[in-house]
């Protein structure tokens, strides 16, 4: 099933089942999950370290690199979902609320085609 056929609830349940089957809830404190998420985000960043912007966009034509990046992105998502499960946060609601705040902070008419500064993308 791809993105068009899978809900966030489906993915959360998949993570919950994975954690439950291994009895890992005992290790999944918000602190531990946030730290693991940061580690996985760093592993994702490693794929782009020391390359310029044009080169970073070329990964789409390298299936092996794209697969590895997809695996790291999946790890980031898995820990994000595990943290949401642990804290009882509805990600869709939190994301929609944040996008409204971002739209207010960075109005399209003012920021179209230009960088908004520090943390301008969904900070």
UniProtKB/TrEMBL annotation:
One of its GO terms (biological process) is nucleoside triphosphate catabolic process. It comes from the Bacteria. One of its GO terms (molecular function) is nucleoside triphosphate diphosphatase activity. Pfam families: MazG-like. PANTHER family: DCTP PYROPHOSPHATASE 1 (PTHR46523:SF1). This is MazG nucleotide pyrophosphohydrolase domain protein. It comes from Bythopirellula goksoeyrii.
